[in-house]
Amino acid sequence: LLIKKLTKMGSFISKNMGTVMDENMKKSQAFMLSTQKMQLERQLAMQQEMRKRGMAQQLGMARERFYWWSGFYSLALIGLTAGFIKMKNPLIITPLVPLSFVVGYQADLVLGNKMERILDEADQILKNEQQLLRLPGEPLSVELVDRERLKHK
Nearest-CA neighbor of 66 among 118, 110, 114, 112? Predict the structure, then answer.
């Protein structure tokens, strides 16, 4: 009778313990899943922020380039116009034509809405011309990254 009671007591304790362990494991899995989701969201936000900063840096470089080009263009415009007035030869001002296109393009990029048009065109390519976006080589995978990492050890 005592052995029977002990057996029942042990099974009662282990049954409750198993249930508690299952509940704890489910809670732990849910916590790990939420942590992984938060980590992934943070990584995506970080990548987006890095991309924005890179684009801002490129736009800043384009603006700086425009300032130099416009300074050069202004000097060329003054000098070539003075040469045209002095010599009365229209060939003297012909270099202004291609320079006007260069400066106009740069001005549109940094002062106009060219960036918006570029982004709209990129959206259209992503939507309608996916075949143009194939990358060379095999698709990236964890195995490929590990293989390359081990090569360089």
Answer: 110
Per the CB < 8 A criterion, the answer to whether 87 and 99 are in contact is no
CA angle 136, 141, 147 (to 5 degrees): 95
Task: Name the CA radius of gyration of the chain, rounded.
Answer: 34
CB atoms within 10 A of CB 106: 20
pTM: 0.65
Token representation of residue 14: 């282990």
Q: How many helices (H) and strands (E) does the chain have?
A: 4, 0
Q: Where are the alpha helices (DSSP H) in 88-141?
A: 96-110, 114-128
Collapse the DSSP code of 88 into the 3-class scheme (helix H, G, I; strand E, B; otherwise coil) and give the result: coil
Can you read off the two tokens belonging to residue 63? 């603006």
Residues contacting residue 95 through CB under 8 Å, at least 6 positions apart: 76, 80
- For 30-55, how does the pLDDT look when each residue is reduced to its tens digit (9 = 90+)? 999 999 999 999 999 999 999 999 99
* pLDDT, tens only, 90-143: 999 999 999 999 999 999 999 999 999 999 999 999 999 999 998 888 888 889
